[in-house]
Amino acid sequence: MTASPSPLREQKKRETRQAISDVATRLFMERGFETVTIAEIAAAAHVAKMTVTNYFPRKEDMALDLRDEFVGSLARTVAGRAVGESALAALRREFLAAVHRRDPVIGFAGLPFVRMIVESPTLTARLREFHDLRENALADQLADEVHAEPDDVVPRAVAAQLGAAHRVLFTETLRRTLDGDDLDDVAAALSDAGTRTFDLLEPGLGAYAIR
């Protein structure tokens, strides 16, 4: 039987991973994502090049290190919704709460970080993949919640609408950040935009997947 890794060893691995990500992101913001090499990241983080690639098989995931949190965010919100709450109501509630706490998962990442993303074709492409994966995860969760048949397209159609709404709102956060808007102004604008967006979806989706 293989022994489980010790808590101390797991903590050390998490710290090493975070340190590599932090160093890489700093270099990316200073010099641009495309120009920084894995070897330079390893040297700056004081680790071997192989250590970097072991933790991050894809270079872009050093910058977009909230992948798992981002991709699973909508599905988790739906899975954790309250009794009597619809999928739409849960997602509305969580989005407005995320705006209030200035959550980086919905785009509150600061001007240097946002500029790093939008100026990199690699990072923008990877972010599009994340949006697609998030929508797929939401579709799977909705299908489970409503006990849909395998060939039922409705959960995918609902997920497409909800995913698109979040994608548009995320893009709006980035746009306003790039425009140099004050953080409080961005939050106020996103709260209003989110409310109006979810209001538009309410007639069609407000009664879907009520727990």
Strand tally is 0
Instruction: Please indicate the count of domains.
Output: 2
CATH architecture of the largest domain: Orthogonal Bundle
- Give the CATH class of the largest domain: Mainly Alpha
Taken as a percent bin, the fraction of beta residues is: under 5%
Q: What are the low-pLDDT stretches, counting only 5+ consecutive residues below 50?
A: none
Helix content: over 70%
Q: Secondary-structure element order, as H and E?
A: HHHHHHHHHH
Q: Structural class, from secondary structure content?
A: mainly alpha
Count of discrete alpha- or pi-helical segments spanning 4 or more residues: 10
Which of globular, elongated, flat, extended, rod-shaped describes the shape? globular
Largest sheet: none
The name CATH uses for the topology of the largest domain is Tetracycline Repressor, domain 2
Task: Report the mean per-residue pLDDT as an integer.
Answer: 96
Calculate Rg over CA atoms: 19 Å
Roughly how many Å apart are the termini? 42 Å
